[in-house]
# Entry
Amino acid sequence: MNKADDQPRLIDHKRTKHGEKYACEVCDKRFPWKSELERHKLRHTGENVYTCGQCEKQFSTPTGLWLHMNIHRSKHKCTECGKCFGSNSALALHKQRLHSVNKPFECSVCGKRFTASVNLDRHSRIHSEEKPYKCHMCDKAFSLSGNLHRHLTVHTGDKPHKCSPCNRSFSSSTSLQRHKHNVHSNIRPFDCPYCGKLFKRNFHLKRHVRTHTGAKPFSCRQCSERFVSDYALKRHLLESHDEGAWFTCHKCQKKFVLSGTLKIHIRRHEGVKPYVCCEYPKRFCTFTELKCHSLVHSDYKLFCCGSCGKYFRQKKSVKVHFVKCAAKLNFNQFLADCYNAAS
# Structure
């Protein structure tokens, strides 16, 4: 073998064995080839250029898209939630983690149980406030690496994922899929066993069921008082034990428990309304306001009057109706009582 044939091998050997690698400017991870570095950079920018033709999910590499397409061709479908997987082992792992009754790993703070220890470790960061993933541009820290990757798009301003019904853009395909499911989908596969109310997500159903059972899974580590939600626990820690930090509005000094609530509050100061109705050019400040408005364009009636059984699209409508309905019912009962007394 001549020297010309040995040269590429020598270059590859130097890059692999002696540190002559390409370094990522964001996370300092190093690669032996420039092409590998370019593919890696797509994870930080959130740029996904390969789109699935069946579900519109996007990927940064053709390999990722190819692996994803196997899911659509797969026969391994979860009977509980309908999610598809590339193999039977992946399906079994999904069932064990999400749908298994046996959850041996319990959080010592709030009592929440998990099927895998890695999920418990991830959950425990909520209580310990451990945030090992830090942004190199603003020093903001996160408990999950995925949250850091999504945060980086705030600095780049890149939102390549566009919703076709309403043209709203998102920084990640996950956010786009969540938006489509929450805003444009009427599928509600989860129903309450107590009152029959339907929900789009199992998380919302679990939270709703607590109103029937009275369960309070979140416990204060300072005084052992229990709460229905983690939000109520956070507010209690701030107000009663001065534990944690308030999120304060720089314009009116109003304080909030969650940063997301503060962001919505600031939008109202600035008049920003990012949520647009796909049926009519009307804009809203929050997703909840848009969701309530969307019911006007739908025949779906979720709320029922407990007195007469009449259904309504909006919760406030059934509340107003119920007061009148109950008053009318009491008046009719009063007339019946008068008639019986006169008889």
Notes: The two ends are 119 Å apart (CA to CA). The longest helix spans residues 315-342.
